[in-house]
Amino acid sequence: QPLIPQLISLPKILDDRGNLSFIESEKHIPFRIQRCYWIYDVPGGELRGSHAFKTQHEFIIALSGSFDVLLHNGKKEERYSLRRSYQGLYVPPMHFRTLDNFSTNSVALVLSSTAYDPDDYIWDWDVFQKACACKI
Ligand code: TYD
Predict the structure, then answer these.
(1) 12: CATH
(2) Could you confirm whether 51 is annotated as catalytic?
(3) Does position 133 have pLDDT exceeding 90, yes or no?
């Protein structure tokens, strides 16, 4: 069963004092969280990412503002727009991913299944394509 990207709506506790959402590891997302990082102060027109991960799973949330996530699975590309604090995108391993269209003051929260490991990155598009072809 191939792992597929998925937009996931998180619990949302509506309150006149302000709303609240939360994530529990392995409950609302299909992996155990080992690391969080966030991307902010992105200058207009900049891109982030443009790589794939061999093994790590990610969950990406637009905590503030909006941006797009482009995912390519080796066969086709799909664009996801993130703009809600209570919704995130599950990114399985072996998806070439790029973040773009960052709005001013947007914040991307990324939850990852692994510690930071530069060896888990695939930067080269051709290497990625070949690795995908091997799996099929
Ligand atoms: P990178 O993963 O390339 O950022 P993005 O894909 O979001 O554009 O990381 C940029 C730099 O930050 C790179 O030098 C590695 C470093 N880094 C860490 O040290 N730890 C981390 O958890 C992450 C995500 C990046």
Answers:
(1) 2.60.120.10
(2) yes
(3) no
For residue 65, the CA-to-ligand 1 centroid distance in Å is: 21
Residue 68 lies in a domain: yes
Q: How many domains is the chain partitioned into structurally?
A: 1
ipTM of model:
0.95
Q: What is the pTM of this model?
A: 0.96
Instruction: Name the H helices within the chain.
Output: 125-135
SS3 54: coil
Read off the amino acid at residue 103.
S
Residue 1 lies in a domain: no
Q: Give residue 83 CA to ligand 1 midpoint distance, Å.
A: 22
Q: Which domain holds residue 82?
A: 6-135
pLDDT digits (tens, 9 = 90+) for 75-115: 999 999 999 999 999 999 999 999 999 999 999 999 999 99
